[in-house]
Amino acid sequence: MQLIDKFNNKTELVGIFGHPLKHSFSPQIHNTSFEALGMNYIYLPFDIPASNLKSALKGAVALGIKGMNITLPHKEKIVEYLQDVSEEASVIGSVNTVVNENGVLHGYNTDVKGIIETLNDYKETIKETDVTIIGAGGAARSVVYSLIRHFKVNSINIINRTHQKAESLKEYFSTKMLFDNIKAYELVPPDLTDVFRNSKLIINTTSVGMYPEMDDAITSIEESFHKEQIVFDVIYNPLQTKLLKMAASKGAETISGLKMFVEQAAASFELWTNEKMPSDIIYSKLKEELINGKEGV
């Protein structure tokens, strides 16, 4: 059957809004899921410059697009154009999923679900412990929210190349979630060895070490890690970043970003369709492709 023959005037359309849109695994994830479940949906990428976002959303409503994933640079700006924003997206100040319900646009942040599903097995281990987050962007916001709301950690260190941005994130969550035990640091690895070592959980939320710059790492100081730690890198390509390899060499338990990526996609999928994504199938397929060196963001 020709690809075009699979679709008709009953086909539901979803997609991703971003700019520039690099090669993404998201269309593959969702279209594979639709096919596996026999659903009459298609997921397409839409390259939308920042200046066209408002018009693109009006177009999405006019065309009856069922929902969208939202990626850079739109995650924060889009909030002002939505009629309804979920609690987690409101607190974080960032939306990565939109549902079009009869012309009313609802915003969500499913990264939170991805983080929770990834760390749930460690909930008791990290409860009331000290955690370090590397980065102060959108992913860091989702992580901070999740740690405070769902994992009841004792304290959070935010480390960023620009100290002012780390300090700003600290103040934001101290005010927004009334969580005062946050410290901000500038990323100067030799000075942070003790901060890293005293953290039960370390989470890298930056793009450092992502394909194709796989030889990069936030720190090269192996003494920052030890066997009592958990190190989580939100990057999923490559599956084992240089940071994770270094932590593993010192006995730390390591977690790649692949489960988070699949689970946040599954949460979006369910919001659009009210159906469960076949997450195990998707996870296995993506893992195999990443092991074989396929690109994606």
Largest sheet: 6 strands, mixed
Low-confidence stretches: none
- Strand tally: 12
Shape: globular
Radius of gyration equals 19 Å
Structure annotation, total helices: 11
Output the strand order for the largest sheet: 2-1-3-5-6-4
What is the typical, i.e. mean, pLDDT?
A: 94
Structural class: alpha/beta
Strand content: 15-25%
Helix content percent band: 25-40%
Written overview of the protein:
- With 297 residues, this protein is α/β, with parallel strands linked by helices.
- The chain is built from eleven helices and twelve strands.
- A six-stranded mixed sheet has the order 2-1-3-5-6-4, sandwiched between helices.
- Helix 4 (111-119) crosses helix 6 (138-151), helix 4 (111-119) packs across helix 10 (258-273) and helix 10 (258-273) packs antiparallel against helix 11 (279-291).
- The radius of gyration is 19 Å and the shape is globular.
In short:
This protein has helices spanning 26-37, 53-63, 87-92, 111-119, 123-126, 138-151, 163-176, 193-197, 242-249, 258-273, 279-291, and strands at 12-18, 41-47, 67-70, 84-85, 97-101, 104-108, 130-134, 155-160, 182-186, 201-204, 230-233, 253-255. With 297 residues, it is α/β, with parallel strands linked by helices.
